[in-house]
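Thread: adenosine-5'-triphosphate complex, take 2
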Amino acid sequence: MTLAETLVEVIGLTKSFGSIKAVDNISLSVNRGEVLGFLGPNGAGKSTSMKMITGFLTPTSGTIKISGNDISVNPIEAKASIGYLPEGAPAYGEMTPLNFLSFVAEVRGIDNSARASRVDEIIDKIHLERVAHQPIDTLSKGFKRRVGIAQAILHDPEILILDEPTDGLDPNQKHEIRALIKEMAADKAILISTHILEEVESVCTKAIIISNGGVIFSGSPLELSSKSRYHNAITLVVSNKDVEKTTKILKELEEIMAIEHIAEAELTRVTLIPYSSEVEISSLVKARMADYECEILQLYIEQGRLDEVFRSLTNQQKSGEVIRS
Ligand SMILES: Nc1ncnc2c1ncn2[C@@H]1O[C@H](COP(=O)(O)OP(=O)(O)OP(=O)(O)O)[C@@H](O)[C@H]1O
Ligand SMILES: [Mg+2]
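Output below.
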């Protein structure tokens, strides 16, 4: 087994703006092959952290090592190995994507002879052909974001810092950009911020939640979903005529702490939350339903609901409690 190669290492990162502590003692690392999801409510400090990690903003304190080199000591070399999509995907609005990407390729030092083919390749990869000759200012939000992603990956950097890469994209593009991130992840270290929790499950190998500038969770997406009250809960789909009876007979099981219903046109989803997520209740539930001749149309075990965990962790944090995995 080869040793993990840490490409981004952040220790004790802090940033104050006057009396506001936007980032408060954050530490994290991203190895080659990893995608770290950076989560947190609005104003938590995600973009500010990313600005410091990419050398755009100077920290109040803390160290940032890019491929082992301190970014404050050797900023040019560090920045050369980073691709950065800043918040809001800023670009030169009067330029066309083709001009802008050619300009970025030049700034990034891509050899004159290779420049045009590299730009074409990226335009093709990010599906910018249709708008390649239109001023960026006149592009839709999603296309502007795609231009931002294109400039970030143009020089094939080994570190990618992407601030809300899929914000504003249509579902097809979201899917494509996630697939691209996964495909690139094998030989890069990638840090993405997002408000889309399903993105964490679909692309991230680990996740960090920050709130009020500090880390309140750090672990794998699985560890995050296992904090949900729905972790190992069972959802049964039953016909509406069976809901009352189902609820009555399952309520009597002492392993079940709570029962929730979501009614649809002719069916109801009945979610059974066990007292302990360690207890396997599906066979018990199936047996009881069979005994009372209630038909189960569908049964599935839930992994956990990330939006519920996110809300509960960030709200507990507001009340002063700190959770660490
Ligand atoms: N230049 C600045 N001057 C003063 N305060 C700032 C500055 N930049 C950021 N902040 C403050 O720092 C805090 C963190 O902001 P930041 O943009 O990092 O949050 P975020 O987690 O990216 O939020 P969002 O999810 O809305 O993008 C906020 O309170 C913000 O107002
Ligand atoms: Mg932000």
